[in-house]
């Protein structure tokens, strides 16, 4: 009962109510676009082709996670927010390595606007490249009804326009809705597949293909993964920072205490995405060369169907976790910024010793986060292979869903506390004195 009262508090704030309604409206528009098929594609044969878990079909199934099933159905929004996400990652990495772009990131709001504009141009180029590659793939597999340049041009224009519309919808959510627009769209696409998975599992139980106990085991495994993600995503190491007393003009500012939170998982889901993409490209090349070199295809398929693939994925995730953490957090720069602001870590000398201490913490905390990401990525596969559990969700998709849900819950919590309501996550239901409606 208390939980329902806490949810009711959300709708007592007019601004928050409008933001949630706008976000839901945009998501409905986005989901409608994922069911409008592209002209000139044999959708029935495409569905049969996408059922393959190996070769090109397996690669497309992997990327279909981020389109919410639209890539599988070859609809107008088939590319989804994928090109924009890829462009954002590329610009983020380039911004950490190219001095001119790094300076733009430090120029405040003006520099970020320029970087965002570059990101959109790059997303447009990636959309054209992806859609053209997809068109050539459909022609090669005999899935285009009337192959040729007329089909390719129409296909590229349709998918590119759809990708730009999805990118614009994501921007509207970020501006006028709640949450990060790109993340919310991916979240909605993944969650939209849950009802079909539940119905399929119920049908298998009803037909006697799997036992009820096995279905309950699937549900328990899902809850275990979700609980693990919440526990570890919330986990952080708080490093205390003490700031000395400062004198500015005629004013004296007393010393303050603060802390720097080092999360267990500083890299997010990027290591999982990078590792999965890299490991699946040999599968794509082997499928293309299977006609002339059948032995190569046999060896590659044996690798992907054996334990060596999951061991490789686990190790690659750990490697990319350290790499992305190093790009995201620079211990030397962080220590220097603290020193310039008159701060220090108790027991550590400002400067080089503090930087070495930060590097020490990031290495050990990052190892825990990397192992957690690696295990999360392969755990559903272990359930499928060892225990024969029909678990159709990947660890990556579950991590996205839980991460975005936590972010949205935190934003709603901020609105409630700001308007003097008891917290949504805390579970309070009474409005404090002076609450604003």
Explain the overall architecture.
The chain has 437 residues and is mostly helical. It folds into two domains: 247 residues, Preprotein translocase SecY subunit, CATH 1.10.3370.10; 157 residues, SecY subunit domain (Preprotein translocase SecY subunit), CATH 1.10.3370.10. The chain contains 18 helices and five strands. It has a three-stranded antiparallel beta sheet. The longest helix has 35 residues. It is globular and about 80 Å long. The two termini are 22 Å apart.
Please report the number of helical segments.
18
The CATH fourth-level homologous superfamily of the largest domain: SecY subunit domain
> Quick one: biggest sheet?
3 strands, antiparallel
Low-confidence stretches: 427-437
CATH fold label of the largest domain = Preprotein translocase SecY subunit
CATH architecture heading of the largest domain: Orthogonal Bundle
Strand order of the largest sheet: 4-1-5
* Count of extended strands: 5
What integer is the average pLDDT?
78
| CATH C-level of the largest domain | Mainly Alpha
Q: How widely separated are the two ends?
A: 22 Å
Overall number of domains: 2
What fraction strand?
5-15%
């Amino acid at each position: 009962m208390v939980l329902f009262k806490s949810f009711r508090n959300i709708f007592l704030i007019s601004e928050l109510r409008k933001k949630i309604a706008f976000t839901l409206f945009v998501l409905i528009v986005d989901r409608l676009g994922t069911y409008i098929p592209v002209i000139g594609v044999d959708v029935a044969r495409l569905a049969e082709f996408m059922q393959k878990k190996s070769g090109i079909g397996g690669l497309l199934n992997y990327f279909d996670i981020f389109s919410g099933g639209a890539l599988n159905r070859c609809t107008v929004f088939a590319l989804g927010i994928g090109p924009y996400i890829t462009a954002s990652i590329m610009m983020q990495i380039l911004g950490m390595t190219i001095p001119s772009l790094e300076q733009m990131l430090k120029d405040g709001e003006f520099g970020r606007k320029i970087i965002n504009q570059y990101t959109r141009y790059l997303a447009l180029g990636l959309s054209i490249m992806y859609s053209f590659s997809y068109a050539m793939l459909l022609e090669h597999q005999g899935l285009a009804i009337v192959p040729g340049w007329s089909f390719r041009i129409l296909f590229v224009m349709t998918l590119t326009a759809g990708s730009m519309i999805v990118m614009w919808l994501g921007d509207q959510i970020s501006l006028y809705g709640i949450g990060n627009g790109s993340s919310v769209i991916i979240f909605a696409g993944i969650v939209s597949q849950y009802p079909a998975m539940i119905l399929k599992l119920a049908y298998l139980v009803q037909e006697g293909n799997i036992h009820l106990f096995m279905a309950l085991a699937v549900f328990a495994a899902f809850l275990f993964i979700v609980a693990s993600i919440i526990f570890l995503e919330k986990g952080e190491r708080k490093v205390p920072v003490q700031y000395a007393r400062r004198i500015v003009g005629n004013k004296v500012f007393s010393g303050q205490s603060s802390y720097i939170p080092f999360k267990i998982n500083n890299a997010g889901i990027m290591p999982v995405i990078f590792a999965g993409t890299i490991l699946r490209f040999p599968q794509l090349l082997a499928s293309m060369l299977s006609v002339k070199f059948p032995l190569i295809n046999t060896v590659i398929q044996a690798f992907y169907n054996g334990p060596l693939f999951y061991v490789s994925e686990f190790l690659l995730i750990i490697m990319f976790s350290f790499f992305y953490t190093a790009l995201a957090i620079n211990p030397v720069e962080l220590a220097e910024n603290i020193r310039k602001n008159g701060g220090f870590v108790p027991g550590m000398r400002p400067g080089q010793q503090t930087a070495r201490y930060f590097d020490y913490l990031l290495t050990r905390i990052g190892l825990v986060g990397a192992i957690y990401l690696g295990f999360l990525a392969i755990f559903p596969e272990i359930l499928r292979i060892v225990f024969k559990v029909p678990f159709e969700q990947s660890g990556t998709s579950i991590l996205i869903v839980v991460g975005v849900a936590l972010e949205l819950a935190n934003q709603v919590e901020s609105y409630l506390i700001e308007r003097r309501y008891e917290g949504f996550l805390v579970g309070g239901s009474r409005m404090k004195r002076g609450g604003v409606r």
